[in-house]
Specification:
This protein is of the alpha+beta class and 207 residues long. It has a single domain, classed as Electron Transport, Fmn-binding Protein, Chain A (Pnp Oxidase, Chain A, Roll), CATH 2.30.110. The chain has seven helices and seven strands. A seven-stranded antiparallel beta sheet has the order 2-1-5-6-7-4-3. α6 (177-185) packs across α7. The longest helix is centred in the middle third of the chain and has 15 residues, at 116-130. The radius of gyration is 20 Å and the shape is elongated.
């Protein structure tokens, strides 16, 4: 992605936090005609000894898993909070509006997970992320039904080989920070989330 230096976060903790707070991602591959093919899905992030892994699955009827099997290299994007920024935050009028946002892009190598036991473990990790209490209900399902559900999906492990984190919060316009933080802090969910990120980056504080 386009990544000006002022928005390029080199702090790995920023990427991890965004991926965990906003796990609904876009998995992007090339289809058999060479066109981009996108699946929107939740992913489970794991930190391993020397690399990151994203775990997810798609319906067997979705051809995306076949594209991953043929061409394991893919891209995963995570979109964090985002919001409009009015030029009213500046002390002068010769300004234009913009849009602030936080995003993570991962280059990945895919490995398919097709064994039932492995898929079951993958699903339990996703359940643990989003509704731990459901784990007991999943375990209590009739084996035949559970097997039917597992046979209808293909899992995958996406090893992250490169990572880019973009925090676009008008860092290069410090004269806007105090007013921007005030507007965002009083705004909707996305705007309030951006105000929290301004705190993390020590933006908008009184001099």
């Amino acid at each position: 992605m386009y990544l000006p230096a002022q928005f390029n976060s080199k702090d790995g903790s920023h990427a991890l936090l965004l991926m965990r707070e906003h796990p609904f991602a876009s998995l992007i591959s090339l289809d058999n005609a060479g066109a981009p093919y996108v699946t929107h899905l939740p992913l489970h992030l794991e930190e391993r000894a020397d690399h990151l892994v994203l775990l997810g699955h798609c319906a067997k009827a979705n051809p995306h898993w076949q594209y991953l099997q043929t061409r394991p290299a893919a891209t995963v994007t995570f979109m964090g909070p985002h919001a409009y920024l009015s030029p009213q935050v500046y002390p002068d009028l010769v300004r234009v509006p913009t849009w602030n946002y936080l995003a993570v892009h991962c280059t990945v190598q895919a490995r398919l997970i097709e064994e039932a036991d492995e898929k079951d473990k993958l699903l339990k990790k996703l359940i643990g992320d989003h509704e731990p209490a459901y784990a007991q209900q999943w375990r209590a399902l009739a084996p035949e039904f559970a097997q039917k559900m597992l046979s209808g999906i293909v899992g995958f492990e996406l090893r992250v080989t490169d990572l880019q984190t973009k925090l676009k919060l008008n860092q290069h316009r410090p004269e806007s920070h105090a007013a921007m933080k005030s507007i965002y802090a009083a705004g909707k969910d996305n705007e309030r989330a951006l105000a929290l990120w301004m705190d993390r980056l020590n933006m908008g504080d009184a001099p």
